[in-house]
């Protein structure tokens, strides 16, 4: 498989592959993991298929993962995903549990959306992050040859923060799509009682209560990111700079989300070229 240029973080935001800083020898496995995750995300999210069909397709997708794990041939349906992934699993001895964890998170997305259900509390939401985001960091640590409990904990903290930042950045997108990531207990702590998520989240007003709610959620993401910052010094060479770029780009998005306050319910903050000098300066300061 040729070494493709990594795709920018647009479609699958939790995947920290964004630039030429990625070491060339790691581009094939990272691209294979990215396409595995992106395709599964599309199955869970895109198109007009009913939830039962999405779950059936994700089960078939998991069966293909299990097939290549035992050296069997995957189905023809997603051969473009699983044949390159099988080669990279063999070449780099990639662990399979993180890939299964990602699929578990995508399946949960389908079920939650179908039920119009919200996350009850931080424990439930962070468990989702453990499966939706943290596996990516663990796979990348494996590729970089970085091991140890401290590194794993730092990676989990950063990936959880990235997922949370993505949630708060995408409130204006997720709520209309029936995805409710603001924890109900956190809402209640700010005087916002949600008993019927589909109706009440859509009706949230840009007032002081909602502004304080979003600020509190932003603090949770920032605190998680702070716990993992030492990881940039553990990853060698260009990989460490790649991580610095991801961290500081995400923190800049979080700053913008926090500044918007309740307006984030209607407006999605984005990085622009004007943010590049600030992000670069913060990378250097790390």
UniProtKB/TrEMBL annotation:
What keywords appear on the UniProt entry? Transferase
Does the keyword Transferase feature in the UniProt annotation? yes
Molecular function terms from GO: geranylgeranyl diphosphate synthase activity; squalene synthase [NAD(P)H] activity
Superkingdom as given in the UniProt entry: Bacteria
Is the keyword Transferase assigned to this protein? yes
What Enzyme Commission number(s) appear in the record? 2.5.1.21
- GO terms, biological process: terpenoid biosynthetic process
Q: Name one Pfam family in it.
A: SQS_PSY
NCBIfam families the record matches: HpnC
Name of the protein in question: Squalene synthase HpnC
Source organism of this protein record: Ottowia testudinis
């Amino acid at each position: 498989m040729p070494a493709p240029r990594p795709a920018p973080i647009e479609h699958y935001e939790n995947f920290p592959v964004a630039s030429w800083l990625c070491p060339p020898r790691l581009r094939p496995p990272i691209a294979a993991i990215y396409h595995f995750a992106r395709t599964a995300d599309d199955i869970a999210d895109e198109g007009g298929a009913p939830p039962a069909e999405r779950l059936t397709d994700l089960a078939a997708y998991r069966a293909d993962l299990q097939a290549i794990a035992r050296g069997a041939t995957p189905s023809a349906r997603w051969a473009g995903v699983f044949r390159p992934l099988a080669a990279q699993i063999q070449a780099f001895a990639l662990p399979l549990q993180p890939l299964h964890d990602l699929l578990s998170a995508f399946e949960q997305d389908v079920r939650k959306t179908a039920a119009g259900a919200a996350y009850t509390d931080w424990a439930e939401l962070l468990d989702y992050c453990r499966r939706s985001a943290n596996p990516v960091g663990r796979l990348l640590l494996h590729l970089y040859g970085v091991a140890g409990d401290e590194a794993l904990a730092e990676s989990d903290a950063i990936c959880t923060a990235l997922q949370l930042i993505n949630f708060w950045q995408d409130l204006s997108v997720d709520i209309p799509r029936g995805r409710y990531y603001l924890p109900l207990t956190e809402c209640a702590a700010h005087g916002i009682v949600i008993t019927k998520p589909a109706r009440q989240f859509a009706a949230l007003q840009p007032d002081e209560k909602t502004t304080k709610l979003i600020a509190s959620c932003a603090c949770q993401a920032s605190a998680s990111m702070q716990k993992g910052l030492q990881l940039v010094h553990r990853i060698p060479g260009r990989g460490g700079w790649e991580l610095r770029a991801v961290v500081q780009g995400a923190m800049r998005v979080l700053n913008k989300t926090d500044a918007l306050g309740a307006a984030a319910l209607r407006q999605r903050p984005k990085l622009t070229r004007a943010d590049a000098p600030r992000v670069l300066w913060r990378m250097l300061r790390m």
